[in-house]
TrEMBL record:
Pathway: Glycan metabolism; pectin degradation; 2-dehydro-3-deoxy-D-gluconate from pectin: step 1/5. InterPro entries: Pectin_lyas_fold (IPR012334), Pectin_lyase_fold/virulence (IPR011050), Pectinesterase_Asp_AS (IPR033131), Pectinesterase_cat (IPR000070). It is an enzyme of class 3 (hydrolase). It catalyses: [(1->4)-alpha-D-galacturonosyl methyl ester](n) + n H2O = [(1->4)-alpha-D-galacturonosyl](n) + n methanol + n H(+). GO terms for biological process: cell wall modification; pectin catabolic process. Its EC number is 3.1.1.11. It comes from Sphenostylis stenocarpa. Its main location: secreted. This is Pectinesterase. The active site is at residue 208. It is found in: Secreted, Cell wall. It comes from the Eukaryota. GO terms for molecular function: pectinesterase activity.
Length: 300
């Protein structure tokens, strides 16, 4: 069981993250500890779930309990109270997947070096933007590690209607992503709602490719913007007023890509909140850096 990543991020105190990237490993080990050391400070339901963890093998070649991720998820009972680790073998899983709200404590785990690829070509024209995602997670305490998730729909242009195509929609609370690669163009990641932690991830896109109302921390991730003649935007955060408690923080991330006209973000709503700290920024950005999305009143 020790080889599977099931860790939930619960920081021990309010110590700020180190400004020294070489100390990130130490910071992580201090704040994210094994279950045996954290029982007294974790949600009782989470402690119960982790102590009774179960591994289910998914293999395309038939050498597991299930050949598809969807069938493995169907085997998890509604109202699940135990951690269920779907150990997903290598290969391309052409599936459109939803982890229902009634099935918390689910982990998608791939083997490093043999990362499974979950792909589907849903678009906003077919499903609506947020429901176009290849993987939709509605439940709490979700974990993904060493997995590739992509939306295979073609890159939209200015004349494309409904071409937005998400790879991931994360709507549940207390979700964590480790070494997850997310590929798409417009609206790659719908960081939809509640609290999420992304570490050592790769996220690729063009327009608003991290968007929504989540309250999320991205650490040591690569954000790759695919620029061209069109304006490109990394974020479109959706905070609507001062009372909402959400926003995105990117810390010690690498901002790479192509083109020269990228924006760090645009204000989807009046109080959109995004922070980039200690990040390395490539030579791909418009000097303005931020867009008010044609709403001058948002500048304040």
């Amino acid at each position: 069981m020790a080889v599977f990543v099931t860790t939930q991020v619960v920081l021990c105190d309010n110590t700020p993250m180190t400004s020294d990237k070489t100390q990130l490993g130490s910071w992580f080990n201090i704040h994210v500890r094994p279950l045996s050391q954290r029982k007294g400070s974790l949600d009782p339901a989470l402690v119960t779930a982790e102590e009774g963890a179960k591994v289910v093998k998914v293999r395309k070649d038939g050498h597991g309990q299930f050949k598809t991720i969807i069938d493995a998820l169907k085997s998890i009972p509604s109202g699940n109270t135990k951690r269920v680790i779907l150990h997903i073998g290598p290969g391309n899983y052409n599936e459109k997947i939803t982890v229902e709200k009634t099935k918390p404590f689910v982990t998608f785990y791939g083997t490093p070096g043999q990362m499974p690829k979950i792909s589907y070509g849903g678009t906003a024209k077919q499903y609506g933007t947020v429901d176009s995602a290849t993987l939709i997670v509605l439940s709490d305490y979700f974990v993904a590690a060493n997995v590739m998730i992509l939306n295979s729909a073609p890159r939209p242009d200015l004349n494309t209607v409904g071409g937005q195509a998400a790879a991931l929609r994360i709507s549940g609370d207390k979700a964590t992503f480790y070494n997850v690669h997310l590929y798409g163009y417009q609206d790659t990641v719908c960081d939809d709602a509640h609290r999420h932690f992304f570490k050592d991830c790769y996220i690729q896109g063009t327009v608003d490719y991290i968007f929504g109302s989540g309250k999320s921390l991205y650490v040591n991730c690569e954000l790759r913007t695919l620029g061209d003649a069109m304006d490109t935007y990394i974020t479109a955060q959706a905070r609507k007023n001062k009372q909402e408690d959400n926003g995105y923080s990117f810390v010690h991330c690498e901002l790479t890509g192509t083109g020269t006209g990228a924006y760090l973000g645009r204000a989807w709503f009046s109080h959109s909140t995004v922070v980039f700290a200690y990040c390395n920024m490539g030579n791909i950005f418009n000097k303005v850096a931020w867009s008010n999305n044609n709403h001058k009143e948002y500048d304040k």
